[in-house]
Queue: 2 jobs
Job 1
Amino acid sequence: MNKVKVNDPYLIFLGSETNPTYAKTGFGIADWQPEKCVGQFHLPGGSVDLGLEELSLEAAAEKGAKTLVVGTATIGGGIPADWITALKHALELGLDIAAGVHTRLADQPELVETAALLGRTLTDVRVPPRDIPVGTGKKRTGKRLLTIGTDCALGKKYTALQLSKELQQASVKATFRATGQTGILIAGEGMPIDAVVADFVSGAAEVLSPDNDPDHWDIIEGQGSLHHPGYAAVSVGLLLGSQPDVFIVCTEAGRTHVAGWPDFPLPSIEDVIERAIAIGSRTNAQIRCIGISANTSKLGEKEARDYLAKLSAEHGLQATDPMRFGMAEITQSIKSL
Amino acid sequence: MNKVKVNDPYLIFLGSETNPTYAKTGFGIADWQPEKCVGQFHLPGGSVDLGLEELSLEAAAEKGAKTLVVGTATIGGGIPADWITALKHALELGLDIAAGVHTRLADQPELVETAALLGRTLTDVRVPPRDIPVGTGKKRTGKRLLTIGTDCALGKKYTALQLSKELQQASVKATFRATGQTGILIAGEGMPIDAVVADFVSGAAEVLSPDNDPDHWDIIEGQGSLHHPGYAAVSVGLLLGSQPDVFIVCTEAGRTHVAGWPDFPLPSIEDVIERAIAIGSRTNAQIRCIGISANTSKLGEKEARDYLAKLSAEHGLQATDPMRFGMAEITQSIKSL
């Protein structure tokens, strides 16, 4: 059974982008997997700098790049004409192409034709693989952790990435399991879980974290939130299929309402823990919360430390901002499990 | 925003089927909407009788049939060659075609070509419409009831159909809202909710039951179960998007485990009520359980009455088998709301 897969080394394509905000995917890859990247490539006028070596397409091909990865997005998610010319040239130079933008590579006739002719691969990482099975609910070997949010877009991916990194540094067998487009490009494989047909969401999560060594940890990137008025179905399917042994609740200091749904207050951390255990215990009776990850980027350092200490005391759990203070305590807890 | 739609009057196509089990869709339509059907049509060798007038394709066209509806399924869900010949002839006679079988009409080149040439419509009722929005969670006008199961395939559709019928007979404004292929063909419209991409499930449920008169009831067909290891994502999205005021728990006497998932015990009715209220209160704070619908087909009449009386006493709710004893009490309760 397949996941979405992208071969490295990558050349990160940045178009003619000048605003770093639109190159979040590129920064994500360069920050978390610089060793996967041979360099970055711009079109004329582009100025976003990921800190990678600036390469021509030809130089990237010579350096062994296997895949050109689109690391930026346009307003509206389209693929402009000048991109097509460059992407086609990359195919001609022997590279495959992968992208997570809204418009599909597979809907660009010129790219499809060239790729078919030359035997190259176009990978739309937002498109789920075929033949995803229905979830079985059967217990798998190995251990699993899922990041579960009080909302969308507040650090579930980066919490999972940081924890995977610290576990690996602490000699714990651990694999980051990606469920969204940026995560998939960072990891080189994964499952775009929110694009899967509803009947197969928990099956897709099962495929994502298959049987593994008894002492191996899958650190699974959460999506949406269990209390989200629009996206809870995704989160519930992911939770059931992931059958996590432990989970981390991810939140953001100061966020009071669901982003984009101003009539919906954020659930409390207590509510999230309770709901996650109620639902998750269906496929893993041992499920429990192991810590809180809070995005404190809007607070000063002292405020952030006080906020985390308060969270920790209130919930009797370790609480950290992974990007600011690391995850040493949670890593230690997992190591001792 | 679109639902899947099928125009009546129907001619029900039964192929050369001899086993009524495979013609469940045909029976569903003929039983619940005989007035929508001009008749039934067999291929040579077919013998399943829905109790409708036996018509040739020509006679059906003359009687005003607008859509040939495939009312039977083959093992494996395919569309045999002799079906194609007949379906093509129906298109030529002016009928559209609708089907809910696994193989898509849209994947049959001969039908697609003929339909395009003649301006006819092929409707695969398992295929969701395009442009389904993300769920907003905004409260809509009108009242809503959802049937919620302890498991799949135990009477959620028939409970909703029977209740819609009794409410209409009691002069309550009520509309059956279909979420599965048979329901959609019975109603002539609906949303194949389990085939919708996970991110859009609650949005699809919102489209299915739009704003309505304050005294109008949408009676929404449930899918899956909130405790299902494979399908819970569908059920959660449907619940959030339906924002029901009341729900009916549907179960089956004697079923102890999730059908097809023998390691998973059925949740208790109490658990289902609690979970439905916990999740559903996010989009409708007033949500409550109004009754229990039990499929008692495996019990004798006396046993069934005792079983229902016990359910009713245990849960302090009206309990009935809609197919056996009707839904007078629940209808009365809804009328008084």
Job 2
Amino acid sequence: MKLILSLLFALLTLPTMAQKKLFTLDDLIPGGSTYYAHSYPETKYLTWWGDACIEQGMDKCELVSKNHGTTRTGLVLNSLTLENINKILSAHGRKTIDHLYNATFPFPEKPYVMIDRGREKTLIDWISQSLIWKIDLAPNASNTDWSKKSLSTAYTIDHNLFVTTADGAVHPVSNDGTPDLVYGESVHRDEFGIEKGTFWSPDGTLLAFYKMDQSMVSHYPQVNITLPGGTPQGASRCAQPAPDPYPMAGETSHKVYVGIFNPQTDHTVYLNTGDPTDRYFTNIAWAPDGSRIYLIELNRDQNHGSLDEYDAHTGEKLRTLFTEDNSKYFEPRSPIQFLPWDGSKFIYLTRRDGFNHLYLYNRDGKLLRQLTSGSFEVMDVLGFNAEQGTILYTSNEVDPLQKNVFSVNLKGKRTLLGNSTGWHTPTLSESGSYFIDNYSSPIIPRHIDLVSTADGLAANVLSAPDPWASYQVPTIKTGTLKAADGVTDLYYRLILPTNFDPQKKYPTVIYVYGGPHAHNIDATRNWGARGWDIWMAQQGYVMFCLDNRGSENRGLEFEQATFRHLGVEEMKDQLQGVEFLKTLPYVDANRMGVHGWSFGGFMTTSLMTTYPDVFKAGVAGGPVIDWRFYEVMYGERYMDTPQSNPQGYEETSLLRKANQLRGRLLVIYGGNDPVCVPQHTLSFMRACIDAGTYPDLFTYPGDGHNMMGTDRVHLHHVITRYFDDHLK
Amino acid sequence: MKLILSLLFALLTLPTMAQKKLFTLDDLIPGGSTYYAHSYPETKYLTWWGDACIEQGMDKCELVSKNHGTTRTGLVLNSLTLENINKILSAHGRKTIDHLYNATFPFPEKPYVMIDRGREKTLIDWISQSLIWKIDLAPNASNTDWSKKSLSTAYTIDHNLFVTTADGAVHPVSNDGTPDLVYGESVHRDEFGIEKGTFWSPDGTLLAFYKMDQSMVSHYPQVNITLPGGTPQGASRCAQPAPDPYPMAGETSHKVYVGIFNPQTDHTVYLNTGDPTDRYFTNIAWAPDGSRIYLIELNRDQNHGSLDEYDAHTGEKLRTLFTEDNSKYFEPRSPIQFLPWDGSKFIYLTRRDGFNHLYLYNRDGKLLRQLTSGSFEVMDVLGFNAEQGTILYTSNEVDPLQKNVFSVNLKGKRTLLGNSTGWHTPTLSESGSYFIDNYSSPIIPRHIDLVSTADGLAANVLSAPDPWASYQVPTIKTGTLKAADGVTDLYYRLILPTNFDPQKKYPTVIYVYGGPHAHNIDATRNWGARGWDIWMAQQGYVMFCLDNRGSENRGLEFEQATFRHLGVEEMKDQLQGVEFLKTLPYVDANRMGVHGWSFGGFMTTSLMTTYPDVFKAGVAGGPVIDWRFYEVMYGERYMDTPQSNPQGYEETSLLRKANQLRGRLLVIYGGNDPVCVPQHTLSFMRACIDAGTYPDLFTYPGDGHNMMGTDRVHLHHVITRYFDDHLK
């Protein structure tokens, strides 16, 4: 009888179903074979040539009207075609290119297009159809950093730093580089906003660079076993060691130096910082005239910082402009920026009042004015409009889930620019008078506008259609609920199963991250729902996600609630989510699962072992298992050291909770994960074995902290199968 | 209604069930908390004092009557008590002992008991109640080898070799030992019967030893992450590299030298073998007078060997006594043994006629007589009875599944000694006139007899009761079926589910090993059924096992059928087993599983990927995945090199078959497996990921090739759960 009813239902609903397609996992996961064709909203490649907006096409480049958003054929760009560029490249014995999507226009005043292949750069005058300048770096050069002012290029080879000047002369900056002594590379494990290791002075004549000695640091014994296609490659058939300097919390850390190289004299001075042991040198910035260099120095405790000024020619420290302290931690992430129209003043970003805000200082370090304030976060400084005397930035002032573009003048008057909804990724023009406003919102897959920063007038360039229009898209809802503190609003996202039947009870999976510097619910397309969420909804799961205290964009107190015992408050908040889910009649509280990666893998494992009666199945990816195995910079910021906070480390260690595992837990890790090193997962396996509990395991040999490409699709098949096996 | 029926059934069957107990996994698996109490048959600890048999007790030692098998109190051993021994140990400042189970009696003519703690040896006269001699080696000494003739002890410390003579003087043999240059340790990865690295001359005045240079060998990058109890231990919190010299098939191998050290002169001579590259020096034996040393030299191809005689004082090679060739491979595993009553003759074991047999040679290498022959295998030479002029050995002449004790005289007359059934583990007395005959059979848990080698008369010492008498033991059957060649008989073992109901259809699991040097079905207790087999039968599985061609004890042709393409013929034979199972009405052919470890892990993975329609689920442990990753000695014997047999390596590589995986396959490996290195399993994972197939994975961090102790119990819970999840 039940079978007949099912058949009837199937027959009745079939016509409706047939109207819209079902997703494949390849449609939904980046790396999937059909992802770009079926999921990625249409886009246009736009860039700035001074204040002129150019659409970079396949075989030509065209100007875009800032008034109408339409491309204008004819005019100055007529001769800028793929065919012409390739003719010139060929004539000079250079490789041709396949498209112009990456063409850039560094000089507002000149018809020069840059064809940049990283190690091979070519500057072409498309009016005279001639090659203006070129550079060819060694094939093993990396970390290239080009100064458009001097045409000098900094780069590294095997951890040594070189500069090739405009004339093609090669200037070695160092010659003793090794994996343990690196020049010109990013330092401090990319924390404190550091993303690179070279910093050209404004006129491109001096190069500031990082040098890092990590010989005293423990080396994590990574192993390379990957044999693509199953065939031994390279010199050795046997797996090879790949030791990776990795300073663990509380242990000896690396030492960082800042040098300044002058290609004209081939001379390097190092900033006279004194012994660099247990000190962080971050947020390097140049004075407009290149005579001074600024950095923010932070103590190892990360609770005291100072903005220091050095002489760029002698390396001597001139003065400390000001200091900043925080009882928990102080985390500078943005270099100071001098006003383009007044080199005696700079802006500085800090969360010292509880939210990230802009402050105006004079060059003596005197605070002139707090430019922004309120219960919102300034996210990025885009630049300046000198004519208007404004600073352009993004913030979530409109809504905690949004990111919008604003200007602020020196009196603190803020103006919203462009569309007031959604999540914006703007690109400012040379003078700051316009920006390309690429944005999405829960109902907008992608819009691109050109917006004037003076008056906010916008012209639409693209309104991309919904790539999922022909698919069965599940219902996606958001809302707020109270954190475990009873006060704070937390945002959640709830996705109902495709073809939702409110009479049924569904297995429910919580996707969690939960750590700092990240969030999951925002006002982007589909409220930031992940492709896998959609896939799981299609498989008949309720999908839930909650940004707990500790996550980003909600202010310092929100983030610092987790200080010295990561995971504890976060879990309490996630349990608020569970309580909410239990009030929903269609959620089967006996079939609750949880999945997360990295900090989310830590959260997943924590939840599975701390609340064994709540969760029946979980999948933890690349988890932190014990913060003692995590690195110094990130780890000690939130946890202090194992020496100074033994209780916090003990309380949060999942090795201690391995004996509490009851449900089914699959732990997955990248075989060469350099972030959450394999020791985390393997130690947890060992602890579970010793405790007589039974996790499951999978690994992606050769992969790092995240799976990419087809591995990412494979991964999500594995995760889905695990919930199908144990939660359905 | 169904529920009520179940309840009724439960009530009806409860009284019957209650009569016998069910096993726990701890009852059945070595390492389980109740294994020794519930599964291990009662035993007695017996040893020889010359030709007197002594039972080593907890707190006393007693003579055992060779006529009646009973212990005799009183007499000479009266004063040999734990209390007395500990008094003497204490009086000399030595640690006391807890029992006398390990007491040995090296000197037939003297009332001396040896208390041997490895590094601390004490020889006590229990009549005079005095300490005769003692030695205390450094705490980090290992590989101890004691000569009872000279009382000298050889041992190694950090890969260097030392000898401490009877007077306590320490003689360093080497001082340049490193992990890459080892002295006094076993060589050639324990192949060719090699188990140790030191060999005392008959009178204990000269020490032959192995030296091995493995600096030219690739080092497998093992990693130590184990943190027992979840707490960081040792100097470093970060995982540590543990490189292990591991020569992979076809790659550069190590070099072995044989030295002879004279503690009286502190002088070492090395045998003048010439360049040791790609040569094996095995089966070291001393001439009775210590003037000559013999070894079998084998080429890297392992198809040509020679028995060579060297001068023990000069190291010069004197002559080759004879050579032996085989078109596939020649595998010498037993050193020659001179007749105790005639030093001009020795016995030699070889399979040159197709089975392992004893041959008598004179010391010039002239073959005098083949002593044993027939379609059976000589297993071990136990020693000699000089008075009778006989050689004592074990063989499976009675039945291919048995191992019995025989004597043979120099005319080739063989005599069965002791019980004619089962599987015997004999220990010969000093003169060879008696042996302790410890044996089991399918219906005998353990018997111990004392047997005269002159007339075969036996006295029973122990008839252990069945430790499973109170348990529900499943039905265990054996039989033969034809191999895939249509000719050869293969032995199988079939275990029916506990409480077998012939009307039901059961999931069925094949346990497989299948490689050389091992077998699974024999005439030991319960036909060699493993504890896990019993456990699975109790969970409702049919358990099946078949010793395919390639396994041991069936002759050379049987073993060499697999030459140059390991796994291929073995799988064909296993499929014969599958066909047999399909004829059994109670076997559910849609729910067939397979499990094996090491070579059996290779077989399991091979079967799962080669016959994806046959097997629904499998668990492969510590598998070989590609013989290119296996070591030189074992691997090249059966597979030749990847260079000389590329087709065989390609044909058997499971990396190539990763794309054929359809069923559920769990692969498990020891995190520090030094035998089948983790590269096997990890490369297979990578190949499956690349091919879009979906194996499962588990690992035991810190464990080697096999799981021991409580890990072994955990492992079998994991294996069982996997079949419960995917086969039931």
